[in-house]
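Backbone-to-sequence.
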């Protein structure tokens, strides 16, 4: 009996270690998403992308909670992570629209442009100047 309890504790250790960071990451992404509301007129696609990212984190968090609750093997996190990776690869244009450089001239974008503007172009290229 003691050996069984010890194995359950060891098995769920990885899932319990991941629980808090996943919760904090989910909250951080959702708070960032709320900050994107002020930029709806030119940043709707990036706001939807952060919601999709938050959904993926929530999915992983729920799997983690189920592993802890039902004393399952933490190896179930591997297929859950693979599902998220396949989702990101399949919908990479919608999930990861963030670009560091201007799509037109290649100039480095400001952090505000990277996070809040859908066009991924610098101010000069977007206004038509060059």
């Amino acid at each position: 009996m003691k050996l069984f309890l010890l194995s359950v504790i060891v098995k769920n250790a990885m899932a319990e270690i991941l629980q808090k960071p996943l919760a904090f990451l989910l909250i951080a992404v959702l708070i960032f998403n709320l900050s994107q509301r002020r930029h709806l007129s030119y940043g709707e696609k990036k706001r939807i992308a952060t919601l999709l990212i938050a959904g993926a984190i929530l999915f992983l968090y729920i799997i983690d909670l189920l592993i802890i609750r039902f004393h399952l093997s933490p190896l179930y996190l591997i297929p859950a992570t693979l599902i998220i990776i396949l989702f990101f690869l399949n919908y990479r244009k919608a999930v990861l629209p963030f670009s560091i450089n201007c799509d037109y001239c290649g100039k480095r974008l400001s952090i505000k442009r990277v996070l809040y503007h859908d066009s991924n172009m610098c101010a000069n290229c977007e206004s038509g100047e060059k």
